[in-house]
Design goal:
The complex is a heterodimer of chains A (111) and B (114).
Chain A: E1 5-7, E2 10-14, E3 19-24, E4 32-37, E5 44-49, E6 55-58, E7 61-65, E8 71-76, E9 85-92, E10 99-101, E11 105-110
Parallel strand pairs in A: 2-11
Antiparallel strand pairs in A: 1-3, 3-8, 4-5, 4-9, 6-7, 7-8, 9-10, 9-11
Chain B: E1 4-7, E2 10-13, E3 19-25, E4 31-37, E5 43-49, E6 56-57, E7 64-68, E8 74-78, E9 87-94, E10 104-105, E11 109-113
Parallel strand pairs in B: 2-11
Antiparallel strand pairs in B: 1-3, 3-8, 4-5, 4-9, 5-6, 7-8, 9-10, 9-11
Chain lengths: 111, 114
Amino acid sequence: TQLLEQSPQFLSIQEGENLTVYCNSSSVFSSLQWYRQEPGEGPVLLVTVVTGGEVKKLKRLTFQFGDARKDSSLHITAAQTGDTGLYLCAHRGSGTYKYIFGTGTRLKVLA
Amino acid sequence: NAGVTQTPKFQVLKTGQSMTLQCAQDMNHNSMYWYRQDPGMGLRLIYYSASEGTTDKGEVPNGYNVSRLNKREFSLRLESAAPSQTSVYFCASSEAGGANTEAFFGQGTRLTVV
């Protein structure tokens, strides 16, 4: 099983601050996905990164795939209370159809 | 669109009782999944069904069984519930596609075994 380690596990910041969360593995991936899960809901896909070194932006969220395709990061600029939630990275095996999820980063943005 | 629907949303069981968690999707997806979510451990795959008629074990299958009833429905059964199975259970579905394919999740079932 390919292990996806996320850090930090918990993060509590004030509204308006910037933050970065990480997803790391010793394995090389063809792509990585990022999901956000709000309290009481299931995860929802934010983005998929597919090319080493790729940077994707989704409003105030910037996703980067490492050059070696072993890691990814999510940077949030000027965090808002609506960004509160659990952020999960994931990989789907192209031959097995299984989604393997990381350990998650729980973000709380305080007003 | 309903997407992925799970029932029940909440359940309390006594140790040794059995129950079935139901999941249905209306997106005509081939693949369906059951995960459990525990604090600090992300989502762990229990069983999955790559297509109708097939099921396979995931990372944590012990104590569970599944049935892919048809293309829409994928149920998870606990034959003899144990306190260690207290968790939030999520059903998901996806198209058959490649590594970039999105997974769609239900709202979860919060199960407590006492």
